[in-house]
Each structure stands twice: as C-alpha cells, then as structure tokens.
Amino acid sequence: MSDLKCKLLIIGAGPGGYVCAIRAGQLGIDTIVVDEGKPGGTCLNVGCIPSKALIHAAEEFHRIAQAPQGPLGIRCGAPEIDFAKTVAWKDGIVQRLNSGVAALMKKAGVRFVEGRARFLDGKTVAVNGSGQVIQAQYIVIASGSAPVELPDLPFGGPILSSTGAMELTQVPDSLAVVGGGYIGLELGTAFAKLGTKVTVVEAEERILPLYDAELTRPVSARLKALGVAVKTGTRARGYENGRLQTSQGDVAAEKVLVTVGRRPRTAGIGIEELALTQDGPFVKTDSHCQSSMRGIYAIGDVTGEPMLAHRAMAQGEMVAEYIAGHAVQWDKRAIPAVCFTDPEVVACGALPGEAEGTAATLFPLQANGRALTAEREDGFLRVIWRQSDHAVVGLQAVGAGVSELSAAFALAIEMGACLEDIGATIHAHPTQSEALQEACLRALGQALHI
Amino acid sequence: MGVFEIRLPDVGEGVAEAELIEWHVKPGDVVREDDILAAVMTDKAAVEVPSSADGTVLELGGEIGAMIPVGGVLVRLEVEGAGNAAAPAPEPEAKPAPQSEQGAGTEPEPAPPAVAKRAGHRLPPPEGAKPLAAPSVRARARAEGVNLRQVPGSGPAGRISHEDLDNWIASGGIKQGGVTRGRNTGVEEIRVVGMRRKIAEKMALAKRQIPHITIVEEVEMGALEDLRAALNKKHEGSRPKLTLLPFLLRAIVEAVREQPGLNARFDDEDGVIHRHGGVHAGIATQTGQGLTVPVVHHAEAGSLWDNAAEIQRLAEAARDGSIKREELSGGTITITSLGPLGAIATTPIVNYPEVAIVGVNKMQIRPVWDGQQFRPRKMMNLSCSFDHRVVDGWDAAVFVQKLKSLLETPAMLFVEG
Asked: Is the ipTM of this complex over 0.85?
C-alpha cells in the first residue's frame, strides 16, 4: 500500500476535527481526516445529540404523565413508553447526522480514512488496522476526550459511563448517578422523568460545583420536586449486590451511572513520543492552537477546559484558516456553556465575583410574562457588569428553555455590549429574552417590570 | 466596474516592508495581468511586482521612496466585474462656508463641541481587561497590524468601532507620552527592518570594531563667517549659497595633505590601511527613513561652489530616494553636522571602515578672554572621533589643531603653499 500524502491531516472527526476539515477543504487545502468511529465524535454519537434526544423524550413523557395533575384542565390516562422504540428513534437521528457530516466533508473535498491514527513522527502517522501510512505537512490533534473511570467502579455490567447510559434499552427501576456535574444531572433528570428512582451522589458540597449556589438553586429545587435524591458531600465507595456503597450509607441502584469528568484522549496515539508540552493532562497550545511542535496543532477537549463542542468547532475553523495563511487568532471573549438540566442553565463570561470591579444584577422569571404562561416561573437571568464603564462581562440564566438565550449572551459579550446597549434594544414580547433587557435596565436603575 | 486592490506580496523571508523605488505605471494606464507595476527594494534585492488583474490604474499606493508594508495596498485598479475592494470614498471637496438661510452676514452655526459621549463614568478599562471591540473590528485590526489596546474607543465603555480603527490608522497610530487620565499601557512593536536594520548593524559594527577616541576643540568662527557672508552677498543669485560645509570640506582637504593617514579606509580583516589620494567626504544626512551618508567624491578637485552644489544635490537625492548606490559608498572621511541642533559637544561614531569623523557643533556667541577683557566671539566646537587602532592621539590632536587654524584664518584655505 503506497503512503498517502496531504497538506493537512486531522486526527479525530468530532466537532473540532470535522469542522476543521470542512473549512480546510473549502479553502482548498488537501485534507485527510482519520477516525476509528463514525464522523461526529463524542458529541454526535454518544454525547450532546443522543442525550438531548433522550431528554426530549423523557420531558414529553413526563408532561403527559403530569398533565392531569396540572392546572390546565387536561385529562388523559397514564402514559406508557416503549423505550426500545425511543432508543431506535434516537439512533435514527444520530445516523442521519453521521451521514450528514460525512456528506459535508465529502462535498468539501476531504478524504476520510477509518482507523486509529498513531504518530510515527511529527509529520507522519500510521493508521491501525489497515497499516496505511499518511504523511502531512500539518497535523491537527482533535482526538477528544473519554469518560473518567473510578477505580472502585469500573465500567461494565451495571456500572455505566454516559455512553453506556445512552445505550440502555430499558428504563431502569433505580439509578445512582455518581458525579453531580452537568452530564450526570442531565441524564439523571431524564431517567427520573421516565420513572426511574434516581439518586445523585456528589463529592462536593453542591451539585454543578462549577457554578455559584444562586445559579444552581433552582435546579436543586426541581430535582427535589422530581423526587431525585441528592447526596452532596458524599463519596461512592463501590457497588455490590445492587447497592452502591457510599460514605453516607448504601443506595439501592439497579444501574450506576458514573459521570465524574472526562479525560483527554492522548494515550494510544503516540503523542507521548512527540514529547509535546503538556498543560496537566492536556496538550498545551498557543493562541493559534499550535502545540509546542511546529506544524502540530491541537483543538477541542484534548486541549483542556471548557470541553465543549462549540469551542472545538471554533478552534477547528480557526486552525484551518490559519494554515491557509489567514490572519486569525484565538481571541474569543465568550464561550457560552449550557446545562440541559431542568431547568436549564446557561452561562457566558464572568460569574459573580470573578472579575474585579463588577456587580451582579438579577431579574427573576417570576416577573416575566412568557415564563408564567409556560407554567415555569422558576429561575432568573443575571447580568455581570463592570461598574467603571457598564461593560457587560458575564450573563447567566437558569430557567426552562433558557438555553436558546445563549446566542444573545454570547453575542452581547463578543460584541462588547454595555448595559445601555442591551437596555436600549427592543426585545420581543412576550418572550423570556425580555428578562435580558430588564436585567440590564435594572442594573441601570431603570427596570420597568419589577 | 469594481475596484481591485493589488497589495504588496510577501517579497521574502522576514521582510515586513519594502521601499518603492520605481513606478512602471501611472494613474489612467491600462494594465494587463502580469504587467510589471512597480519595483520595490528590500534590504536584500530589488523586486518587480506584477499586476494580478487586468484593469485601469486608479491610484498609486505611494511615492517613490515610500515604504510599503507587505500586504499594504500598492495599486488600486478599476476592473471589469466586482473587484475586491470598496470604491474609494470621493475626496471631500473643499466646501464653501455654509451659508445661512437668513442670508449673508450671519455667523455659521458653530460645530458642536467634540466632547466624549457620556463622559460621566468613563474610565479606562481595568488593566488586563481586553479592549471592547466587535469580532469584525478585532479581525481587521489584526490584518492591519494594529494593537487594539492602544486604540481609543469612542463607543460606550470605550468600545472600539470600525471608525475608531480607521481614525487610528489614518492618524499614524500610537499615542505615546503625554499625560493621560489612566495608565497608558500601550506597547507598540516596531520591527527593525530595512534601512533601520542597516543603520543598526552598521553602528554596532563600528562601535564593536573601533576603539574610539574623541577630541573636542573650540574654533573661533568670526573671520570665516565674515568671509562666507561676503561671498554669499557677492554671488547672490548667481551661485549656490555657501554653508559652512564647503569651507570645512576645504579645510579637511588641506589638513589631510599633511596627515594622509586620516583620509583612509582600514581593512581590519586583512590588516591593510588604504590611504586615498582623493578626499571622498561623507556628509551624514537625516532622511525620512533614517540616517544616510552620501559621499562627495573628489572634494579636492571641486571649487567651493562645486562642493556646495554637490552637497546640496546629494542631500536632496538622499531625501527623495533617488540617490544612487555609488553615491552612498566609497567615503574616506565623514562630516556630521546637526546645524543649530549640534549641541556643545558630541561623540561621533566613525563611519566604518573609515578612520576619522569630523563632528560640527552649534555656533554661538560666547565670551572669550583676550588678555584684557571678555569679548563676544562667534564660537563653534568641533567634536572629532578617530579609530584609535590606527590613529594615535598625537596625530588626532594635530589634525584637529590644523582644522582649527585653517578655519580661524580662512585665507590659509585659499593660499597656495
């Protein structure tokens, strides 16, 4: 088999890798992508997309189940769910997107090689399986991340990673979620809505420990209302006879979902031999996502937090343009992050107290007409603004469906908006987005609806 | 019809800008793709820049001698189709003073005072905070090589708009020094390239290789100044005006006759001193791009006015960039004069591989004790440096004293023998 040659080789076809490939292809760069799985990476195959499908199904089921007890006067019988069918529907969406990504790469003239890439040197990789050798002028490491395993709770059998949880074909009677970060809470909430008895075990003092208590309180309240038991300050010790042992007693659990974080996928690719400078477990990169070795770039989860698909996509796009000779640089101000919990949490920019000289102003969704008409008045929107010049440096919201506000949040911060800009912009009524305008007006002492 | 901008391509490794040395086209010319538009000089070589499109030349990107940054607009063409640039804004015509509708005689309304909007809570963003600017502004600043931290933003919270960026670029960039309301943390990066790099290398070479000895002596200029004024009056309009330099040149020509070791080039690699018969005097000249040293060749053969005219011509050629390479080389001794800025004393650096440089300081009336009383005299210092490897202090001092006596008794400059 003759060696393949290309200008740009991308290791990994996740959101970082495939976006990098498409843009590179559009810019006329001869590009090859290597991935052992289907295009789309964790996000599309076993992450963002399938989990959102499950969350949607669970929400629909839960609404129907709750409707007769609600104030709307809806009468109906108890719903049932054929979970195998739900999973098949979810898999169908994933497949559709898989082939969509493959088609987009093909359209951009990108070659896709299936297999696991391994560095032979800084310009050459070998692909496991076929043994194909590929030489490239530039290499982008976009190998992503994998769930962290706990030594006392190795994956397998009833012990599930997030990937395993999305492959269940039956709704378990009981589920213990070890790790109260956003992945565990999203899936835990979904199963709780499907009727599973869910217990969340978190070692820190509260759930979603990356965020402040004010922001996560509505999520905690909702978990309680959904009957999810939350044990904070508690460590999981092991699993035996259908019971999860913890530092605060046993928890009955048919399945255990371990979501204690993700680690960069650097092993098995030969990155160690290249002796790239590391930043902890991650590949250290500069403002052009270039590693310590010239011509080798790294994007996405393998470069560290925040491990978010849209960050990887933006990095991939930038690297492709940089390699094409454009004057680009990683200068993003705002990387929005969304937790698809119930209620949803969206955060962008600085949290309260994170940036010097800032103040936080909050607008409760109780004062928002749209929230009331959707039966969901829990939550609020919060603006973090600089006192010296009113620049908006952070925006957060918690509430049902607030994930869609992420666009407004990121746009405001990326464009350098200040309170007066947002306050003077007409926000459509009745929408939740009015809370953004009102929070800014309130910070200026000019709130209208509170 | 569209406007197509042809930008200066990357003309070589590490070259950030290039000097325009020749235009092959002028506005109105029709050019075809691959026609040569201009020649530019990098510090390595002259490079011809071809057109990348067919079209009619609208505008040239600079005068001969201008430094064009790589990526800077070289030529704007009018082309068939859309082009790649926005049409240039029409030059604002000089508007007549606005006429009031009430008729002549009334004062035009005063322009609103240019005050910062909502200055109330305006403070510079905290140190370390990134400047507020939309992504498109940031991208353009990067492309233009502008550090946004230095650009004053006119928007709320000091946000930088495209217009602010335009103004900043138009104004020539960084604001340095001066009292500001907040800390000015701007740092402008200036790549030392082209002419400046040449000067830096040459200066470092001279200072590294040559152990300098500098002698400062004062010269009474009264007699020479009287002579100069008389000659200029006599030939006013018919001959070039004489400055001090042609007299000094004549004095040097005379002085090196007795000390040929000072009119020389020292090849220190081969250990050979080349003493020249002719005096090729470099005249340090400040140009827009920096210091150059055009050379008056064979100063010994020129009359006072010949040399005056030649000095004048070379200085102009150096400043407008038309000077030829051979006019910048081959010097055997150099004169450096800052005129009225010439200070009391300087420590000139010998123009390697020459061995002597004559520095002219400022002329001023100083009290001079004549044995009975102080008298006002036109005095001027000469600060001369020498390569001490091949010029002993004695020789240097003799040379300076010779210059002094020649200048103080200018008749000696013109008397044979």
From this structure: no
